[in-house]
Amino acid sequence: MNRENDMKKNCVVTLVVTTALNDVEIVTELLHPRWERKQAH
């Protein structure tokens, strides 16, 4: 039982981390052009 719970926790953690990294990449991609535009002006 403990091993199964640990596996589930590991799966959840990996999913959360991967989704968080993907969100960060998307946010940075969305924000970068804005920062470049501000610097250009």
Give a structural overview.
This protein is an all-alpha fold and 41 residues long. The chain has one helix and no strands. It is rod-shaped and about 60 Å long. The mean pLDDT is 87.
* N to C succession of SSEs: H
List segments where confidence is low: pLDDT < 50 over at least 5 consecutive residues: none
The N- to C-terminal Cα distance equals 60 Å
Percent range of helical residues = over 70%
Sheet of most strands: none
* Total strand segments: 0
How would you summarize the topology of this molecule?
Elements: H1 2-40
In short:
With 41 residues, the protein is mainly alpha-helical.
Keywords:
mainly alpha
